[in-house]
Design brief:
Helix content is 16%, strand content 42%. By secondary structure, it is of the alpha+beta class. The strands form five sheets. Strands 1-2-3-4-10-9-8-5 form an eight-stranded antiparallel β-sheet, with no helix packed on it. A five-stranded mixed β-sheet has the order 12-11-14-13-19, with no helix packed on it. Strands 16-15-18-17 form a four-stranded mixed β-sheet. The chain is flat.
Length: 340
């Protein structure tokens, strides 16, 4: 989790009403009789036609939860989605949700999960969404001082060293890949490399050539992967498509997701249960009683861990660094206590 220069947070701090809600954790400073305020409950209000500096929003929904305060800003302006680097200090991969019905409307949504950042008194998280029905929504959650960064952080996924959306997992059958986590002294969540057993797998070509993706009669730009059920995928086809643009020949690559026929699945396995093989990282350090030993020192010590000791916990990444104040322990440390 890094320190962001977050323009949007500074805009909120300059709005007296929203700032008072975040500081006090209640609506005491809000005029609930105002025409642009709708009180949905004693813990949820909607403020219509609100301004943050020079920026106008159709509304902001504020909900007071037990452990955090939620603010959702709604606007028709695409700039907050397209230029998240400017307004939020960082960018993220665009992800697409699987379409769903709301009444007679088909809802399609894409989003950027910007992760956690330092809020006013504790941690906060940000997500920016784009919906064909609701327009653009900026979703913020402000947590208290006791919120733990490790519980809010999320793993990142990589394919041949290139970051991909988590939804890329579902382009593979469970037996096609192995997930290899690695840990950093500065992050709670691991970096997970998706190792593909077949070096000619179509998804590898999709990533290498920044291809588009065709799924359910819709074409997605590279990096935008919808949620899908891998058991409903009966095949993947990677093709180079030749097309013309202003009489200039260009080659466009696309990964085509071939869906199974209705009622058919691509496997006889346990449909609906998706379990990928995860390679367990090797622990490099061991605390046995008051001693900390490396793996080689442990092997030379002659200690019988299984017979004489009980494993209390194993820590990786920043969680291990926080507890032991040693960057080396990010690679894993197991803590044992004597049975006696």
């Amino acid at each position: 989790m890094g320190e962001w220069q977050m323009i949007f947070l500074e805009l909120i701090k300059k709005n007296a009403i929203l700032y008072s809600i975040l500081i006090n954790g209640n609506f005491a400073q809000v005029d609930l009789r105002s025409q642009n305020v709708v009180a949905w409950s004693d813990r949820a209000i909607e403020i219509k036609n609100i301004r943050l500096g020079e920026h106008e929003f159709d509304s902001v929904m504020v909900v007071l939860y037990g452990s955090f305060i939620s603010m959702e800003f709604r606007t028709a302006d695409a700039k907050f989605f397209n230029d998240t680097k400017h307004y939020f200090g960082k960018d993220a991969l665009v992800r697409s949700k699987k379409s769903y019905l709301m009444g007679n409307d088909v809802i399609e949504e894409e989003y950027k999960d910007l992760g956690t950042f330092k809020g006013l008194e504790g941690l906060a998280s940000a997500m920016v969404r784009n919906s064909n029905l609701f327009g653009f929504t900026i979703s913020l959650r402000f947590y208290g001082e006791t919120a733990q960064a490790k519980s809010l952080s999320k793993p990142t996924y990589f394919l041949t060293g290139i970051e991909v959306a988590q939804e890329a997992l579902h382009l593979f059958k469970p037996n096609e890949i192995t997930l290899v986590p690695t840990f950093s002294p500065f992050d709670y969540a691991p970096r997970i490399e998706i190792v593909v057993r077949n070096s000619e797998h179509p998804v590898l070509k999709y990533v290498a050539n920044k291809a588009s993706l065709s799924y359910g009669n819709r074409l997605y730009e590279h990096g935008r992967i919808p949620r899908l059920d891998p058991f409903r995928v009966c095949g993947l086809t990677y093709v180079d498509q030749a097309g013309t643009d202003d009489d200039t020949l260009e080659v466009k690559s696309v990964l085509i997701v071939n869906l199974c026929a209705s009622g058919q699945t691509s496997t006889d396995g346990n449909v609906g249960h998706i379990s990928y093989e995860v390679l367990s990282p090797e622990v490099e350090f061991f605390q046995v009683g008051n001693r900390v030993l490396t793996k080689n020192e442990l092997e030379a010590s002659g200690l019988n861990l299984e017979g004489d000791y009980i494993l209390e916990k194993t820590l990786f990444g920043k969680e291990a660094v926080d507890e032991f104040n040693n960057l080396d322990y990010a690679q894993g440390i197991s803590v044992y206590k004597s049975k006696k």
